[in-house]
Amino acid sequence: MNQTPVAGSTYDVLVIGSGIAGLSSAVAAAAAGAKVVVLERSAPEDFGGQTRWTEAYFRMKSETEVSDDFEELLVANAGHHIDPNVVAAAGQAYEQWPGYVKAHGMTDPELVSTLSGEAGPTVQWLKTFGVKFAALPTYFVTAAAPRLMPVGGGLALIESLQQHARKAGVELRFHTTANQLSRRDADGFLHVGVVTEAGEGVTLKARSVVIASGGFEGNAEMMTHYIGSTAKFIRPVARGGYYNKGEGIRLALGLGAAAAGDFSSFHAEPLDPRSAQPEALVMNFPYGILVNRKGRRFVDEAPGPVDVNYDHISRAIKDEPDGIAWVVFDQRIHDVPNWKRSIRTDQPAIQGETIEELAVLCGMPADNLQATVEQFNAACGPGEFSALQVDGLATQGIEPRKSNWARPIAQGPFMAYPIIAGICFTYGGIKTNSRAQVVDCDGRTIPGLYAAGEATGLYHQVYTGATSVLRGAVFGRIAGEGAAALTKEVA
Ligand SMILES: Cc1cc2nc3c(=O)[nH]c(=O)nc-3n(C[C@H](O)[C@H](O)[C@H](O)COP(=O)(O)OP(=O)(O)OC[C@H]3O[C@@H](n4cnc5c(N)ncnc54)[C@H](O)[C@@H]3O)c2cc1C
Predict the structure, then answer these.
(1) What's the pLDDT at 491?
(2) To the nearest 10°, the Cα dihedral for 91, 94, 100, 103?
């Protein structure tokens, strides 16, 4: 297939990005009879962006129902000190919302309820492409919420959708990077400037455009601009992240789109920096202590189930000297059934016969680590250790406290893994409504412009786990259907 787009080509729907959001849009638009093209900057063998690398956990207790805490948690992390006037206005029917509320960057309740309500139907829709779902074991030894996942992970999702898109006549253009966008012209077309594999600039036209080009985790300049100087310590958890450089977000903001989600934060995972593996996780810190380069504790390692806490604990690691920490633990880790499920690095634990030896091997001051462990051990009280439940076995009288699974680290040989914060995806993006239309700074929609997935802003503070692939599928599908329908209206 010719991979170079032809200048001046016109489409009903042009989709930027071939991850879950983009392919869901493309397939939905094609099913509605639209002529569709998908632009993808990567080579064909790397298509699918971040979605390619994920196991794609869905926060669902069955193929039709989201978790019990789904909406509550998303709303609990809706933003920071939201103006009660905004909250009150958002309680009315959407049509009544003032423009400044429609354009507000909070976790929009309209998006939360659409995501929750459309999750089940979207899973059923994905199943029509041959994707199977199951509740398989996860890397969380303790978890507050259930996870459903496509068998074969994100790769199975994008391969099935891509296959279906091709059958439906969708054009897929690889090595093609979108870097310009205009509003609709007098003839009803949006213009998209792309750079081809040969480095040439070509303009394509479409009646609707869906921005599904991910976040900005692969853009060092935007990461530093929005997240700050500690961004230099962070790296994508898998190769897909390097392709998401934020052009889609910038293009929409350049057209006057409102911004949403927390641009200064991101979803983090604890990674072993020594490993070249994708998602080289180290998640056993609830059963040990976390110390920084100086050998000092800095965070409660176990406020509750690990699936609720690994995100903000990873971000806390980023803020320590050199953005690194070590989990230190002893032989009693073997009391935790299946604890190795929480370790995805291919690198071995660092091991020392004594705490001093371990400290030297990790490159931290031995006397500091010795003092930290002694102080921690002395703060561990009596009580029953229960590995797989939040056991309330907390330290007494030290800061920071460890709230659960606190037992003395005393049975050598002692072990440690280094941990840095990996970035899963950025939170800040384009403001959209429940129909996946891009909303401008005055609360109007931008005609013909849609966005879905990571490119859109939803999250603040702590990520409500296992909702990102799902929202890509839900809003990608909605965007594709809406874009195709709009095309018919305009044509
Ligand atoms: C290892 C890993 C594990 C994860 N685990 C989970 C999980 O279990 N559950 C969950 O819900 N989420 C998880 N996530 C997050 C989730 O996978 C992503 O947020 C989601 O898949 C993003 O989908 P998307 O379609 O928005 O973006 P992507 O899948 O990243 O697709 C964006 C595409 O756009 C392309 N692109 C970017 N810019 C341009 C441009 N200018 N022109 C053309 N193409 C462009 C990119 O190359 C990419 O192919 C995980 C992520 C990773 C990396």
Answers:
(1) 60
(2) 110
Nearest CA-CA partner of 486 in 97, 120, 25: 25
Query: What structural domains and CATH numbers belong to the chain?
Result: 10-260+428-490 (3.50.50.60), 268-422 (3.90.700.10)
Contact by Cβ (8 Å): 285, 327? yes
Nearest atom, ligand 1, residue 467 CA? 11
Nearest Cα to Cα of residue 404 among 384, 424, 425: 384
The parts of the chain modelled with pLDDT lower than 70 are 1-3, 490-491
**Full DSSP string of 253-287:** HHTTBPEES-TT-EEEEEE-TT--STT-BB--GGG
- Ligand 1 mean position to 98 CA, how many Å? 32
- Tell me, using a 6 A CB cutoff, whether residue 150 lines ligand 1: no
Contacts for 442 with CB less than 8 Å, ≥ 6 apart? 99, 103
Distance CA 211, CA 181 (A): 10
**Ligand 1 binding pocket includes 53 (Cβ within 6 Å):** yes
pLDDT score of 486: 86
* Ligand 1 touching residue 252 (CB < 6 A): no
Asked whether 47 and 162 are in contact (CB, 8 A), the reply is yes
Phi/psi of residue 406, nearest 5 degrees: -90, 105
Ligand 1 site, residue 278, Cβ cutoff 6 A: yes
| 17: region left, alpha or beta (phi > 0 left; psi from -120 to 50 alpha) | left
